[in-house]
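Tutorial handout. Part one gives the primary structure; part two gives the three-dimensional structure as tokens.
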Amino acid sequence: MKLKIAICDDDTSQRAHLFDMVASWSKKNRHLIEVKQYADAKSFLFDYAEEKDFDILLLDVEMPGMNGIELAKTVRRENAAVQIVFITGYYEYFSDGFDVSALHYLIKPADGIKLCAVLDKAAERLAYRERSILLSTADGDIKVPLADIIYIESENVYVIIHTTHGSYRTRMTLGKCAEQLDETFFKVHRSFIAGLKYVRKITRTEVTMTNGGTLPISRGLYNDVHAALIKHL
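Part two.
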């Protein structure tokens, strides 16, 4: 798998430092990479308008003009797959990462061992996105990446797959659908399966998903759902 990586930092020495560590990581792990460097958000977005195939973004938070947080929000509006890593000297921005599902924060100067661990995790997530389920719908067979599934609900002899880019209805039992999933999903109710990474909030009676959907939790399952969420973090 070839990875396309962007380094966006207004400090020339920081860009060079990150580039060297990324190159060393790719050589050690035998990853094919394409790395592009940018001094500000504007120059990155100019390229991104034409080429939306970046896999990993290493973003400085404090930059002239649009900062790294705003840049990440702009990209995330239309790209749920890209792995975003913030490189910053400011701890106070950590909470902003939740809004864009950031993979990690690294404090400057970035440590090579820590960056390599984060890049390993990003590569694993990107490889996982290639896993899919095949659905037979009224519009034909559709391949849906597991990573895009927010939750699944049962409707008589059908299931509805709610994803980050729409919903699909197919004739299948919830149990049969569950056989194609993995440990990142949890059956919270006899009629609902939740994608754990898309859970926004959990109470004793329901789970709220990032798309606003609310799923009931079966009586006695709260502790199990909570444990699954903790394990997935």
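Part three, for discussion. The CA atoms of residues 65 and 102 lie 21 Å apart. The helical segments are 12-29, 41-48, 68-76, 112-128, 174-178, 222-232.
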